Records
---
Amino acid sequence: MQRQACLIEVVCSGHPQLRYAGTAVKTLFLSLFEWFGELGIFVWRMGRAGVTPPYEGRELIRQMDEVGSKSLPLVALAGAAIGVVLSLHTRDSLLRFGAEALLPVLIVMSIVKESGPIITALVVSGRVGAGIGAELGSMKVTEQIDAMEASAVDPLKFLVVTRVLACVLVLPLLTLAADFSGFAMGWVATTLADPISFRFYLEEGTKTLAYRDFLPATFRTMVFGFIIGLVGCFQGMRTSGGTEGVGKSATSAVVLASLFVILADVLLVRLILVFFG
Amino acid sequence: MVTVAERMPTMKSPADGETKAAVQIRDLRKAFGTQTVLAGINLDLAYGKTLTIMGQSGTGKSVLLKLIIGLQKPDSGAIQIGDSEITQLSVSELNKVRMKIGFLFQYAALYDSLTVEENVSFPLRRHTEMSKSERHDRVHSLLSRVGMQEASRKMPAEISGGMKKRVGLARALAMDPELMLMDEPTAGLDPIKAGEINSLIRELQQERHMTAIVVTHEMQTVKAVSDSIAMLHEGHILTQGSFEQLRKSQDPFMSAFMREAC
């Protein structure tokens, strides 16, 4: 990295505008490496705190309720919307090829394999990621985290491990809710255009669906949960600068968590295709 | 009911005739970037005594308290609490020392998501094996002592700043600490409530021979609770002594500060 920085300096020397751009790039590189370095240390410390007793079971359950039941209506609604949109779009395309009989299977496959997991992760990253970032950020600037540490309670164990674990455990369950809601509303949209029974729709939709389609796709949301919880907690715990800092932490938690979820999705889909495809 | 003190390992008291300090700070230095906040602090505090630290805003008084409890790491120097050199301790060893220290934060730092009662019982729930009823009794006795029993079910957002401070004090006292660190304990309170808190601190000193370090600007508190007073100025302890000694100080800064404060 130092070589890259030196190279930028050599290339840019003698040109004020280039030098300015070079300095900006160098600063960006350094802050990026610093961020990832701090994140690595944070993950290591969190992992160590997570495996050391005593365990915070009570707080974990509270966080699962916070992440799970309070996100459920939003996730179900998002799933329903995706079901309707998929039905409308896919029906239109399939009609052109006279293949509308494939509509149920396309809706189900599309929701199970991609739309359900990614929509759930993005909705949760918006609601929970921002919530965690703002809550921990606010606790940081009002010295509540210091107070916890002064009470001989490890904030990483009590605040971070519980939230990250709650996100990991709850995301697959929320994905199931989004999937089901998508199937149901997909059927409503389909049957409004061309009436079919829900039973027939489900049978048609799931007859080619195998466990290798359903399980890896659903359980990959545990990785998304880990990303959302981790980024929210990390951004929250490094908050500085009062209420303005809290706002920045909440925003950056959502933006970064959503970005990393999408990037992780690319990687995970590729891995799933390699191992289960 | 079994008291918290009986459940906790006690901070080692000095042997008979020994005059070892409860808190001993040597050449403590701390800087943030290029700004030096503490430039070689030396302090001794005897068991059962109360030291008040005064100084202008931004001179590092709160930083000093945070260094003492290990919330921040010093750049160099030594902090001895009882027999423990806290700058050298691992996190788990440091936590054992922290269980014997109560910390009242400047803005109380109550946990927003917990009720007043849950805030006070938080350390008891985590570090003692008290039954629910024992915990309830202890929490309510502490809350009534600071005049906050009526607000036990309220959330921190529903009470005033002064009330938060009193709940913070109850929480700091929950584990029956042997050393209390108080950051502006009476700031933001009306004179009557401030007087009550000062009396409470005085009572605790007499009943429990509690050792305390108090950071404050309030002269009423300084006079009421201090056995000795240290003036922090430009990163150093400018002078240390009784209230009268400081009031009669010939140092220009000291005399100007006391004149304005009184």
---
Amino acid sequence: MDVSDKDHVERCRDGHPEDFGLLVDRYQKPLFSFLASRVGNYPQAEEAAQESFVRAFLSLKKLRKPESFYSWLLGIAARVAQEQFRSEIHRRQGREAAETMMSSAAAERADYPLEEVIALLPENHRQVILLRYYEGLSCQEVATRLAQPLGTVTKTLSRAYALLRQELGARERAEETVNRTEPS
Amino acid sequence: MNCAESRDYFIACAEGLLQEDQARQCRAHLETCASCREEYEAISRLQQRLIARGQAAAGVRMVESVMSRIRQEQFKPERETIMSRLMKHGWGFGLSAAAGAAAIVSIILWTMPNAQAAAEAVMTQGAQAVARLTSIHLRGQLRTEPNDNFSGINPDADFCTIELWKQFAPDIKDLKWRVEKPGRVVVMDGKTTVMLIKPAKMGVKVEQPTASAFDTEWLQRIANLSNTISNEVKNARAKGWKVSMAEETGADGKAKSVVTILAKSGVPDNEWGKNWFYDSADTRRVYRFDAQSKLLESVRIYLVRPAGEVQIFDLSQIDFNQAIDAAEWTLDVPADVNWAGLPDKLPILPDNDKYVSMTAEQAARAFFEACARKDWNEAGKFMSPITEDMKTGLGGVEIVSLGESFASKTYGGRFVPYEIKLSREMIVRMANTNAAHRYVIMGVCDSNLESREELHWTNGPAVLPDNDAYARLSPAEAMKAYAAAFARFNWDEMKKFAPDYDVEHDKAQCAEIEKSGQDAHKLLPQIEVGEAFWSAEQSGWFVKCRLVQDRAWNLAIRNDNAARRWQVDGGIGW
């Protein structure tokens, strides 16, 4: 397996800030996708992703669980997206604009929890998902990259799918319950 | 192909990895089975979602731009103006510059008996200053093993972070607290008190709110400043502990009041367990208060022992009345956690009397014998829960000897000296698909060949000057060469088969054992290498090995529980 998030975070804290580049490399694409579905356009998503990484680096000392770096990063990104959203409303200075933005963001947000759910996977499962789908490697290339047999990669992938489906299912059910109980 | 076989192939099928005939069989099954078809379609939909998400981000490249922004942030000049600096430091520039970062100038030193009164006054003022606390957060460093008991100390261990968050309330049901160190955490959310020992995946739950639990009391005493700071001085008076008091100038140029208490635990020096826990240790406790605000600023605790003093606790971050994130009152408990029973709820067995009549030695023997037979039902009568890790470690144990039990003032039960031989199976994955074309260790698997630990070869194994000789070794021969090198602590030779960082870890562990005056050859396991086999499914070579290890220690065992049965409480390392 590649070096873990925890090791990278600890190296950064130990005076090797250049290691943060490896974390950016690892998570730039899922973070971008996560933000694109929240803010609704690519240039803003890229700006928000860069801002999120910079903020994460500057508060790395506050990260209590280095192994949860990715979940923590998504939390920062969600706040950045929210700030961006508010400042955009302010800039447009209009309730109508806000309503338009909110409805278009909601439409874009149809499957936004995917990266959040990926963040919940055990690190080795997450790595296989990210390499396969976000880095676009084939299963054989993932196996070579991680120095693992192909069989191990497909087993990990299979387990990751099961966990993702389980979590997505739970979220969908929870959302349905909320929708049912919300006053009309 | 039936449903189970077909479902095993779904991911490989969706990824286009199946051989043509397997793919055909899989498709044929899908055509006839609606339930599998639905399952396969759900997987395909998720796969399409993942592909779409990845494709949306295909051109994203931001490493350079992010790192460039980070470099700019790091070297950004301070935004403070000259005026704001002057306002902050006041006229004390000269003084703080002279004091420097570390220099602290002692100006008054009280000695007994006036110290008692002066210290008590400072502590009382400190207590009053925080009498109406709504919350506190402490973050300190303690010399301890990361997974050990919260009050466990080890002067030879590295410092590890320990933190406490506490939300005060007049009524205990509104009180909330959390104490955490790397390997264990307790959360009291106002309703229940739950402890999780992370690596062992072991949990303990008390179905009621508590003010303190699971050996966190010593830290809670520091957190409950308003009524315990003054208690410390009262204790000193009652027990005759030495107290001294000094006024100093801190690194920030401000006056500080420093109270030092030399606390004696009352445990004799030769007692087993002396200095293992905060309350069984003789300590020098240094409380530093800001003289003006009267607020406690830091606590340093030193272990006092005949060999000399060593600092065991450093509390330098104390946040008063800051909002605590509600997430601190929640605990993510893994679904597969093993819940331990509480002593006051230990069930009475149908043949409970048989166990009650045992001596501590008989109970220790019965426990180890049950582990030797892998009779986990029987072993569970002496310890609960028995985790999978314990089963792996203790299953098949061989008893070498058991000694006579003894008591200690540090512990409410008894200790039984034991010597045992542990052995466990390990399967090592080897590969020679590297530039040096020799077999090296890639990871460790369980008996189902599921990976338990992967080794990271950053640049792959280096080509050695005598590489050909190593390249001729079979997987089992390579593993034997590694085991032989480990038995001799020949670190350079081991690095030919395992990554440097892994060998350095073993080397550090060995140095740690020898530093504590013990024989590392006896404490570290020996590796017995068995046969190698090829797994077609995993496309890899695996070598069966056995780790054999001698262990001699004292088993902690106590019977002060509802069923009066002896329960193993510690001393076995899991």
